[in-house]
Amino acid sequence: MRAVEADVLILGAGIAGLATALRLARDRTRQIVILTREADPKESNTYYAQGGIATLGVEDSPELFAADILRAGAGLSDPQAVRVLVEEGPALVQRVLVEEAGVAFDRTADGAFHLVREGGHSRARVLRVGDRTGAAIVQALHDLLRSFPNVQVVSAATAVELITSPGPPPLCHGAYVLEQRTGEVRPYLAGVTVLATGGLGRLFQHTTNPPGARGDGLALAHRAGAKVLHCEYVQFHPTTLALPQGENFLISEAVRGEGGRLLTPDGRFFMEAYAPGWGDLAPRDVVSRAIFQEMRTHGYPYVLLDVAKVPHFPTRFPTIFRRLRELGLSVPEEPIPVVPAAHYFCGGVWTDVWGRTTLERLFAVGEVACTGVHGANRLASTALLEGLVFGDRAGQKIAELRVAPLPPRAVPPWEAPSGPDPDPARIQRLWQTLRTTMWEEVGIVRDAQGLARALRILRELEAEVEELCRRARLTDALAGLRAGVRAALLVAEAAWRNPESRGVHFRRDGRP
Ligand SMILES: Cc1cc2nc3c(=O)[nH]c(=O)nc-3n(C[C@H](O)[C@H](O)[C@H](O)COP(=O)(O)OP(=O)(O)OC[C@H]3O[C@@H](n4cnc5c(N)ncnc54)[C@H](O)[C@@H]3O)c2cc1C
Fold first, then answer.
1. Quick one: fold of 4-232+346-410?
2. Best of 384, 385, 393, 478 for a ligand 1 pocket test (most atoms within 8 Å of beta carbon)
3. What is the spatial distance between Cα 388 and Cα 125, in angstroms, rounded to a whole number?
4. Which of 284, 356, 378, 486 is flagged as catalytic?
């Protein structure tokens, strides 16, 4: 099958991939191809970011911002990467998002930006577009990139393997890509390849992430031999809606800030017992663990959030109110069923502060990358900023390289089994095993015994999936499952190896 050639191949069109593309597109000399796994190129974690993007507030400074990030990171953040973020981020938000892309962040009556203070931030410094900041950013960046004829977006195209040569040094030459509309796997060759594939929340039974967040990029990079780091650090959000029709819907932590209280389905308020003095206002990780513990000990499928005493609930939380009423819940009189959910992946493919990985000509940006900014826990509203800053930096560094794609004949063809399509019910069943195993044993509270059990199950799953890949035709669902199992193993192995509780990694049998 004929190869597609590009100067730069970007896998992913969330904020990070789009920021890299924009930086490279401007001088119009390079051919850039952006792939998205989804048919709608806007569909991504970025699209669902409700909160906002951090910048600098009034009476604020890069030093204060950095101190907040370092505190959240619990001693594991890389101070150099943090410095880059806080020094370059605010100017990029202004230049790229406000001036070039025209993102209409909320303003006050006198025309100044409306800056919000979020948990863990010592200043009001978060910019928002209502509660749809991510959607506004991704739409504006796609619109802007459409004006560059040297940028092509190919949707419904899943990268299934990186194309590498062993070196030394080992080099990346692009990716084998499953074009979902035809079912063909075609080599996409490029001088430089950029992983911008986002996170892995879908590995867990409960998550805030959309279906595409299944760890594809982490698995691709690891299979190609790139270094990965801090995979045990998965951040959980304490309260997402536990109704099947409302899956993934976040119930903002501000609801507890305004008086919402957690109770068990049989009516027991429990937070005070877990966090004396703090109660329902305890930090995010403590609340997630308490809910998980109650669910596990008593077999509850969820706990409840009582909002009856939240003043002016319908006007204070209009989106949540509307959505819950649509789903038939009589809030604020009726309590909201909630569960904690996997939210953000702090680890990933190791990169330096220019997005370079340990493989030559392979870069990684955004949630799939581990720049070191987030350490053992992420400060709210810094993920979009990290994607913007390190996406832009990767673009700068790639622009300095003068490399051409390999000639297509040097690339071995994709060896595809000509078997039948994999049985969707079987794929669904394997995913179910993976997601419940990750939730039960590699989730919010971990111990060596549970992690060892998870590793055994996941290794068996991987063997079964690899066998399936040898016999069945490759589909996006099968490729995703293959990536998901590898990514899950990386998280479980890192969690098993590390007995120290720190940030979002909690080992009940380990060192505090
Ligand atoms: C509900 C929710 C709320 C959030 N709120 C905030 C917030 O308020 N502030 C904040 O800073 N962060 C927030 N986050 C986190 C933030 O949205 C993400 O970390 C960030 O958007 C990730 O951007 P990204 O560009 O790395 O990846 P994504 O935006 O996830 O994009 C990934 C891209 O990769 C593509 N892709 C994946 N696999 C493949 C493959 N195999 N082949 C080809 N393409 C592939 C996808 O199609 C997609 O285009 C939130 C996340 C969620 C889920």
1. FAD/NAD(P)-binding domain (3.50.50)
2. 384
3. 16
4. 284
